[in-house]
Design brief:
The chain has 205 residues and is mainly alpha-helical. Helix content is 72%, strand content 0%.
Length: 205
């Protein structure tokens, strides 16, 4: 499995996970309340400064993690250009990039175990009602862990396809083998969970 936490130690790493997640909620709400274009530019500048403060290496890693957002940014931009609402589209794009960048900053500076501990604390009232929250905590951790794993396997499949074909873009042609790899990984994780006692509260970690 791949850890999403940055190996570059920053002051953000020392902040409690609950505080960072709380600030993320407040900041994201503020971004949606901010309707002006210049306000969104200012917010994005602040986010960029947060990435730049720990150093260039950390900023480059953060920027690389935001590449998947480019597709959504392009789609939103094309739509608003076509409908003649460019200023409105710019606000949405800037808000989207700032919000995702902030969430990524929290992910890069917070261990998964710390985030799950916060989730475990938040779901305490559910356990008082007799609802088991362990499956939810495990599902969230697996999703976070598997996203970069499947992304890396998809990239490897695309590279392998380009090496064997004159076509440069594999597109949907790697969908079936990627789905097969995902199912194979899911089966292995299920076997590992069963070997550790499943999702019972006393199961081994």
């Amino acid at each position: 499995m791949i850890s999403l936490t940055s190996p570059v130690e920053t002051p953000y790493h020392r902040l409690p996970a609950g505080l960072k997640l709380g600030l993320l909620c407040v900041a994201t709400t503020g971004l949606f309340a901010l309707g002006s274009l210049w306000g969104q530019f200012a917010a994005l500048a602040v986010v960029a400064a947060l990435y730049a403060a720990p150093g260039a290496g950390f900023a480059r890693a953060g920027a690389a993690a935001l590449r998947p957002v480019a597709l959504f940014v392009a789609l939103i931009a094309v739509w608003h250009i076509a409908t003649g609402t460019l200023a409105e589209g710019a606000v949405i794009v800037l808000r989207l990039v700032s919000a995702v960048a902030l969430a990524n900053l929290v992910t890069m500076t917070t261990r998964l175990a710390d985030m799950l501990a916060v989730l475990h604390w938040i779901t305490t009232p559910l356990r008082w009602l007799g609802i088991r929250t362990r499956p939810l905590e495990l599902a969230i951790s697996l999703v976070i862990r598997f996203i970069p794993v499947l992304s890396a396997k998809g990239a490897a499949l695309a590279e392998s396809y380009r090496a064997r074909s004159a076509r440069k873009r594999p597109g949907w042609r790697i969908a079936a083998p990627l789905a097969g790899l995902a199912l194979d990984d899911a089966e292995r994780v299920a076997e590992a969970l069963r070997a550790r006692g499943g999702l019972s509260e006393g199961a081994r970690e």
